[in-house]
Design a protein that fits this description.
Elements: E1 3-9, E2 13-20, E3 25-32, H1 39-57, E4 65-69, E5 73-74, E6 79-80, E7 91-92, H2 93-101, E8 105-109, H3 110-121, E9 130-135, E10 139-145, E11 148-149, H4 180-184, H5 186-193, H6 202-223, E12 227-231, H7 233-238, H8 240-253, E13 263-266, H9 273-287
Parallel strand pairs: 1-4, 4-8, 9-12, 12-13
Antiparallel strand pairs: 1-2, 2-3, 5-6, 6-7, 9-10, 10-11
Protein backbone atom coordinates (compact mmCIF):
# COMPACT_ATOMS: atom_id res chain seq x y z
CA UNK A 1 0.00 0.00 0.00
CA UNK A 2 1.24 3.48 -0.86
CA UNK A 3 1.76 6.07 1.86
CA UNK A 4 2.03 9.83 1.54
CA UNK A 5 3.62 12.54 3.62
CA UNK A 6 1.10 15.32 4.15
CA UNK A 7 1.57 18.94 5.22
CA UNK A 8 -1.23 21.28 6.31
CA UNK A 9 -0.20 24.91 6.83
CA UNK A 10 -2.58 27.40 8.42
CA UNK A 11 -2.66 30.48 10.57
CA UNK A 12 -3.13 28.45 13.77
CA UNK A 13 -0.89 25.44 13.26
CA UNK A 14 1.46 23.55 11.00
CA UNK A 15 0.42 19.91 10.72
CA UNK A 16 2.44 17.02 9.39
CA UNK A 17 1.09 13.54 8.82
CA UNK A 18 1.38 10.19 7.14
CA UNK A 19 -1.73 9.13 5.23
CA UNK A 20 -2.41 5.90 3.34
CA UNK A 21 -3.78 5.74 -0.20
CA UNK A 22 -7.14 4.81 1.37
CA UNK A 23 -7.25 8.03 3.41
CA UNK A 24 -6.27 6.50 6.75
CA UNK A 25 -4.25 8.82 9.01
CA UNK A 26 -1.30 6.77 10.28
CA UNK A 27 0.34 9.57 12.25
CA UNK A 28 -0.16 13.26 12.88
CA UNK A 29 2.04 15.96 14.46
CA UNK A 30 1.03 19.60 14.96
CA UNK A 31 2.97 22.68 15.99
CA UNK A 32 1.47 26.14 16.68
CA UNK A 33 2.06 28.77 14.01
CA UNK A 34 4.28 31.33 15.74
CA UNK A 35 3.43 34.99 15.40
CA UNK A 36 6.13 37.11 13.78
CA UNK A 37 8.30 34.17 12.72
CA UNK A 38 10.79 34.60 9.89
CA UNK A 39 10.76 32.55 6.73
CA UNK A 40 13.61 30.37 7.99
CA UNK A 41 11.92 29.76 11.36
CA UNK A 42 8.73 28.72 9.59
CA UNK A 43 10.72 26.42 7.35
CA UNK A 44 12.30 24.73 10.37
CA UNK A 45 8.83 24.02 11.78
CA UNK A 46 7.78 22.59 8.42
CA UNK A 47 10.70 20.19 8.31
CA UNK A 48 10.19 19.14 11.92
CA UNK A 49 6.50 18.24 11.69
CA UNK A 50 7.05 16.19 8.54
CA UNK A 51 10.09 14.41 9.95
CA UNK A 52 8.39 13.69 13.28
CA UNK A 53 5.25 12.38 11.55
CA UNK A 54 7.37 9.96 9.51
CA UNK A 55 9.21 8.76 12.61
CA UNK A 56 5.97 8.33 14.56
CA UNK A 57 4.45 6.28 11.74
CA UNK A 58 7.60 4.14 11.48
CA UNK A 59 7.25 4.20 7.70
CA UNK A 60 10.31 4.81 5.56
CA UNK A 61 9.04 4.85 1.99
CA UNK A 62 6.63 7.45 0.65
CA UNK A 63 5.11 7.97 -2.77
CA UNK A 64 5.25 11.76 -2.56
CA UNK A 65 4.35 14.77 -0.41
CA UNK A 66 0.99 16.53 -0.54
CA UNK A 67 0.69 20.12 0.70
CA UNK A 68 -2.34 22.19 1.63
CA UNK A 69 -1.44 25.79 2.45
CA UNK A 70 -3.34 28.99 3.03
CA UNK A 71 -3.37 31.34 0.04
CA UNK A 72 -2.80 33.20 -2.05
CA UNK A 73 -0.14 31.31 -4.00
CA UNK A 74 1.42 30.86 -7.41
CA UNK A 75 0.67 27.21 -8.00
CA UNK A 76 2.79 26.71 -11.12
CA UNK A 77 5.89 28.19 -9.48
CA UNK A 78 5.24 26.60 -6.07
CA UNK A 79 5.32 29.95 -4.24
CA UNK A 80 3.16 30.66 -1.18
CA UNK A 81 2.14 33.93 0.49
CA UNK A 82 -0.45 33.01 3.16
CA UNK A 83 -2.31 36.10 4.35
CA UNK A 84 -2.25 34.90 7.97
CA UNK A 85 1.47 33.99 7.88
CA UNK A 86 3.29 37.23 6.98
CA UNK A 87 6.74 35.64 7.32
CA UNK A 88 6.22 33.85 4.02
CA UNK A 89 5.89 35.97 0.92
CA UNK A 90 6.60 34.13 -2.34
CA UNK A 91 8.26 31.39 -0.32
CA UNK A 92 9.36 28.51 -2.61
CA UNK A 93 7.58 25.80 -0.62
CA UNK A 94 7.30 23.12 -3.29
CA UNK A 95 10.98 23.22 -4.26
CA UNK A 96 12.08 23.42 -0.62
CA UNK A 97 10.12 20.28 0.24
CA UNK A 98 11.42 18.41 -2.80
CA UNK A 99 15.01 19.35 -2.06
CA UNK A 100 14.76 18.46 1.63
CA UNK A 101 12.97 15.12 1.36
CA UNK A 102 13.95 13.91 -2.10
CA UNK A 103 10.31 13.35 -3.04
CA UNK A 104 7.97 14.86 -5.57
CA UNK A 105 5.81 17.47 -3.85
CA UNK A 106 2.34 18.63 -4.88
CA UNK A 107 0.92 21.93 -3.63
CA UNK A 108 -2.56 23.41 -3.47
CA UNK A 109 -4.60 25.82 -1.40
CA UNK A 110 -5.74 24.34 1.93
CA UNK A 111 -9.42 24.90 1.11
CA UNK A 112 -8.99 23.11 -2.22
CA UNK A 113 -7.08 20.34 -0.46
CA UNK A 114 -10.04 19.67 1.83
CA UNK A 115 -12.27 19.73 -1.23
CA UNK A 116 -10.17 16.99 -2.83
CA UNK A 117 -10.21 14.96 0.38
CA UNK A 118 -13.98 15.20 0.69
CA UNK A 119 -14.32 14.39 -2.99
CA UNK A 120 -12.28 11.20 -2.78
CA UNK A 121 -13.05 9.98 0.75
CA UNK A 122 -15.88 12.07 2.25
CA UNK A 123 -19.15 13.89 1.66
CA UNK A 124 -18.35 14.67 -1.99
CA UNK A 125 -17.56 11.09 -3.01
CA UNK A 126 -19.30 10.38 -6.33
CA UNK A 127 -20.64 13.97 -6.43
CA UNK A 128 -19.66 15.82 -9.61
CA UNK A 129 -20.54 19.35 -8.48
CA UNK A 130 -19.94 20.68 -4.98
CA UNK A 131 -17.98 23.18 -2.93
CA UNK A 132 -16.08 22.55 0.29
CA UNK A 133 -15.21 25.30 2.76
CA UNK A 134 -13.01 25.76 5.80
CA UNK A 135 -14.14 28.20 8.50
CA UNK A 136 -11.22 28.36 10.89
CA UNK A 137 -8.53 30.99 11.58
CA UNK A 138 -9.30 32.11 8.03
CA UNK A 139 -11.91 31.05 5.49
CA UNK A 140 -11.13 29.25 2.25
CA UNK A 141 -12.68 26.82 -0.13
CA UNK A 142 -12.51 24.75 -3.26
CA UNK A 143 -14.90 23.90 -6.07
CA UNK A 144 -15.50 20.71 -8.02
CA UNK A 145 -17.43 21.35 -11.25
CA UNK A 146 -18.26 18.56 -13.68
CA UNK A 147 -15.93 16.31 -11.71
CA UNK A 148 -12.90 18.62 -12.03
CA UNK A 149 -11.21 20.85 -9.47
CA UNK A 150 -11.21 24.52 -10.45
CA UNK A 151 -7.73 26.03 -10.16
CA UNK A 152 -7.87 29.36 -11.96
CA UNK A 153 -5.06 31.41 -13.48
CA UNK A 154 -2.59 31.14 -10.59
CA UNK A 155 -4.27 28.37 -8.60
CA UNK A 156 -6.37 30.64 -6.39
CA UNK A 157 -9.91 29.68 -7.45
CA UNK A 158 -12.21 29.02 -4.51
CA UNK A 159 -11.35 31.98 -2.27
CA UNK A 160 -14.88 32.12 -0.88
CA UNK A 161 -13.48 33.92 2.18
CA UNK A 162 -13.00 37.03 0.05
CA UNK A 163 -16.53 37.22 -1.31
CA UNK A 164 -18.11 40.40 0.03
CA UNK A 165 -20.96 39.71 2.45
CA UNK A 166 -21.20 43.04 4.29
CA UNK A 167 -20.63 46.30 2.38
CA UNK A 168 -18.56 48.63 4.57
CA UNK A 169 -18.02 45.79 7.03
CA UNK A 170 -14.88 44.83 8.94
CA UNK A 171 -11.47 45.44 7.39
CA UNK A 172 -10.02 42.18 6.05
CA UNK A 173 -6.37 41.14 6.04
CA UNK A 174 -6.50 41.47 2.24
CA UNK A 175 -7.26 45.19 2.62
CA UNK A 176 -10.92 45.11 1.57
CA UNK A 177 -13.97 45.64 3.76
CA UNK A 178 -16.73 43.16 4.40
CA UNK A 179 -15.11 39.95 3.14
CA UNK A 180 -16.62 36.77 4.55
CA UNK A 181 -13.30 36.07 6.28
CA UNK A 182 -13.39 39.49 7.95
CA UNK A 183 -16.89 38.84 9.26
CA UNK A 184 -16.81 35.19 10.32
CA UNK A 185 -13.30 33.72 10.70
CA UNK A 186 -11.81 32.76 14.05
CA UNK A 187 -9.17 35.48 13.88
CA UNK A 188 -11.75 38.18 13.22
CA UNK A 189 -14.26 36.90 15.77
CA UNK A 190 -11.56 37.69 18.32
CA UNK A 191 -10.51 40.95 16.67
CA UNK A 192 -13.89 42.52 15.97
CA UNK A 193 -16.33 40.86 18.36
CA UNK A 194 -13.99 40.52 21.33
CA UNK A 195 -14.74 36.83 21.86
CA UNK A 196 -12.61 33.70 21.89
CA UNK A 197 -14.19 31.52 19.15
CA UNK A 198 -14.00 28.54 21.52
CA UNK A 199 -16.28 30.41 23.96
CA UNK A 200 -18.43 32.38 21.53
CA UNK A 201 -22.00 33.23 22.47
CA UNK A 202 -24.91 31.79 20.54
CA UNK A 203 -25.53 35.21 18.97
CA UNK A 204 -22.04 35.19 17.44
CA UNK A 205 -22.45 31.59 16.25
CA UNK A 206 -25.70 32.53 14.51
CA UNK A 207 -24.21 35.71 13.03
CA UNK A 208 -21.23 33.83 11.58
CA UNK A 209 -23.52 31.14 10.22
CA UNK A 210 -25.62 33.80 8.51
CA UNK A 211 -22.57 35.35 6.88
CA UNK A 212 -21.43 31.93 5.62
CA UNK A 213 -24.91 31.25 4.24
CA UNK A 214 -24.87 34.62 2.49
CA UNK A 215 -21.54 33.93 0.81
CA UNK A 216 -22.56 30.42 -0.15
CA UNK A 217 -25.81 31.67 -1.72
CA UNK A 218 -23.81 33.74 -4.21
CA UNK A 219 -21.57 30.79 -5.03
CA UNK A 220 -24.51 28.41 -5.44
CA UNK A 221 -26.22 30.72 -7.92
CA UNK A 222 -23.03 31.55 -9.78
CA UNK A 223 -21.81 27.96 -10.13
CA UNK A 224 -25.03 25.89 -10.14
CA UNK A 225 -24.20 24.00 -6.93
CA UNK A 226 -26.55 22.11 -4.66
CA UNK A 227 -24.06 20.80 -2.07
CA UNK A 228 -21.68 22.82 0.09
CA UNK A 229 -19.75 21.01 2.81
CA UNK A 230 -18.17 23.05 5.59
CA UNK A 231 -15.39 22.17 8.00
CA UNK A 232 -12.77 23.94 10.08
CA UNK A 233 -12.44 24.42 13.81
CA UNK A 234 -14.85 27.37 14.00
CA UNK A 235 -17.68 25.80 11.98
CA UNK A 236 -17.39 22.36 13.56
CA UNK A 237 -16.88 23.86 17.02
CA UNK A 238 -19.97 26.06 16.69
CA UNK A 239 -22.00 23.01 15.67
CA UNK A 240 -25.71 22.76 14.90
CA UNK A 241 -26.64 26.35 15.72
CA UNK A 242 -24.12 27.59 13.16
CA UNK A 243 -25.22 25.15 10.46
CA UNK A 244 -28.92 25.90 10.99
CA UNK A 245 -28.28 29.63 10.65
CA UNK A 246 -26.16 29.10 7.53
CA UNK A 247 -28.82 26.94 5.90
CA UNK A 248 -31.59 29.40 6.72
CA UNK A 249 -29.66 32.30 5.21
CA UNK A 250 -28.77 30.26 2.13
CA UNK A 251 -32.41 29.28 1.62
CA UNK A 252 -33.54 32.91 2.06
CA UNK A 253 -31.08 34.22 -0.54
CA UNK A 254 -30.81 31.48 -3.20
CA UNK A 255 -34.20 31.53 -4.92
CA UNK A 256 -33.50 30.42 -8.47
CA UNK A 257 -35.02 27.05 -9.32
CA UNK A 258 -31.57 25.42 -9.62
CA UNK A 259 -30.09 26.95 -6.45
CA UNK A 260 -33.09 26.94 -4.11
CA UNK A 261 -32.43 23.32 -3.13
CA UNK A 262 -28.79 23.93 -2.19
CA UNK A 263 -27.76 22.35 1.11
CA UNK A 264 -24.99 23.10 3.60
CA UNK A 265 -23.63 20.13 5.55
CA UNK A 266 -20.63 19.42 7.79
CA UNK A 267 -17.62 17.75 6.21
CA UNK A 268 -17.46 13.99 6.76
CA UNK A 269 -13.70 13.79 7.41
CA UNK A 270 -13.96 15.92 10.57
CA UNK A 271 -10.85 17.17 12.30
CA UNK A 272 -8.59 15.02 10.10
CA UNK A 273 -9.98 16.66 6.96
CA UNK A 274 -7.07 19.08 6.45
CA UNK A 275 -4.32 16.47 6.67
CA UNK A 276 -6.25 13.92 4.58
CA UNK A 277 -6.92 16.71 2.11
CA UNK A 278 -3.23 17.57 1.92
CA UNK A 279 -2.42 13.94 1.16
CA UNK A 280 -5.17 13.88 -1.46
CA UNK A 281 -3.44 16.74 -3.30
CA UNK A 282 -0.62 14.27 -3.96
CA UNK A 283 -2.85 11.23 -4.53
CA UNK A 284 -5.05 13.03 -7.05
CA UNK A 285 -2.09 14.61 -8.85
CA UNK A 286 -0.22 11.32 -9.22
CA UNK A 287 -3.28 9.38 -10.32
CA UNK A 288 -4.92 11.95 -12.55
CA UNK A 289 -8.04 12.40 -10.43
CA UNK A 290 -10.16 15.58 -10.43
Amino acid sequence: MDHFLALDIGGTKFGGGVVSERGDVISYIASPTPKGASDSELWEITKRVLHDAAVKADIHKFSSVGIGCGGPMDLDRGLVSPLNIPGWRDFPLTKSIQDEFGLEAYLNNDGKAITLGEGLFGAGKNVRNFMAMVVSTGIGGGIILDGRLLNGRLGNAGHIGHVNVEPNGNICSCGARGCLEAQASGLNISRYYGQDPRQATDDIKVLCGEYVGRGVASAASLLDLDLIVVGGSVALGFGDIFFRAAQKELSNRAKLNFSSSAKIAPVELGEHGPIIGAATVAISSQRGLF
